[in-house]
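Retro notes - structure team

What went well: the batch runner handled both jobs without manual restarts.
What didn't: labels got mixed up in the shared folder, which is why I'm recording both outputs here explicitly, each with its sequence directly above its tokens.

Job 1
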Amino acid sequence: MLRHVAAGIDGSPESLAAAHWAAREALRRDASLLLVHAWQWHPRPAPTVPADMSQRAWADDLMTRVSDGIRSAHPAVKVLDRSLQAAPAAALLAAADHADVLVLGSRGLSGFTGFVTGSISQRVVSRSPVPVVLVRAGVGTCAEHLPAPGGVSPDEISQTPYRDVVLGLDVGRPCDELIDFAFDAARRRGAALRVIHAFSASPAYATADGHGRVGGPQLPATHEHAVIAALRPWCEKYPEVPVAATVVDGRPAGELISASADAALTVVGRSTREAPPGSQLGPVAHAVLHHAGCAVAVVPHA
């Protein structure tokens, strides 16, 4: 079955940014793009629905306008669209079943937008069988690439290098799905992969040296060796991807948010074993989704 990149559309600036990001990702993957807009009838339509237009007609018109705009901006991408009356979360998850990646718009610090609000956003991100990428308004081509010389837009110079891809790595559970997605994302962009592993040194792990002095000099080295061991097979699989690993004593969320400020994409994981579907995201993924300065990919893993 033909795979594609799917994007949720609701007409907001965030969802339009997500659609354009998804189109660029479809190009990177040599895949088609599926735009999905799900709507539900309401006795009091939203203010965005004109008084002389039915909710169905407005939904179809929205999809036509967005699809035409994406086709015009990305003529090399095959664009499919689907506007349907259905529960938004269910429609998005159904689209994810046959997609490589699902892309949604996000307000970042202010929370999710449009039809991915509150419990719906939680269900989509927490239940998706494929990685979900959250994109904020303003995250365009320029945000993904390094500054071009002379102030020229990256849109005008296709060879402008991408910014790094950032991966948050927990050496306690170095899952294949997460690491593979990050390496593959860097490879498709011709970008470097920056791996961040943060840990909190605990007094319980302090060791006494031969003179009775207490310290923990072996702890960082232990983490560094674990990171190297976790990345070694992936460096061999993706020899073309430059990798820089940082092991730091600190808070994982804070370190990832800081690294995301000048990144093209930040990749975090979501365990499918720790909690039942629909549960809250882990604290690190939750914080990164709301505060990262770039698009964020949440990758499900066993």
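Job 2
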Amino acid sequence: MPLVLRRPMEAVYERRLASTLAGLSRPQHVGIMLDGNRRWARKAGHDDVREGYRAGGAKATEFLGWCAAAGIGHVTLFMLSDDNLGRPADELGPLIEVIEETVRDISATGRPWEVQVIGSLDLLPGDTARVLKEAAAGTAGRGGLKVDVAVGYGGRREIVDAVKSAFEEHLAAGGDPVELVGRFDEEHISRHLYSSAGDRTDFIIRTSGEQRLSGFLLWQSAYAEMHWVDCYWPAFRRVDFLRALRSYAGRERRFGK
């Protein structure tokens, strides 16, 4: 179908789909795995995969607007794993640049979002950690949509760091580590996760057709619903997002009971 005809028809379908979601349950914390930027660039005929990173960064900003409009309160964007930090410098560098640009964009004055960067920022190259922290710090107290940007992030590392943090806090207060071992529970980990916005994820979306978590929000996703999308992240449309919300609304969440 010619593009000139397809777009108006998609717009009509999108409006109808959005109307069917009125009054239905929706997730309050959505984790999104922004997968397929490089493959999108190659498929689109770009010799430079940076074009995929740039398109993916712009899509992230657009996606946050969709989430805010849908009444979602918390979004975690998985932009770079700790495993990804092992990529060659000529590949990692452009990706880091786009992540910096994206965080500055979503943190800019006028954006009604409160941004936090989570992950092992000390592992990032150069001044990246400082750039990301400074951009996010300017959003403190804005209210509205809470946005966590996961950079240099690994779910296993987060759990290990949470345990360490819990013990460090206890010891700093003069506590006995043996006593803490005796009463250590899930809440000690939940309170020391990277994000201050919550320890439970309702819904995780992954683009590109891959069907695995790859270490994303391992603790928080214990009872999360999963949704896999075949398209690459830069090609992800609002209609795909609305379909994901429709899928979520149609599920019975029993939380293991």
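One thing worth noting from job 2: The chain has a mean pLDDT of 94.
We'll revisit the folder naming next retro.
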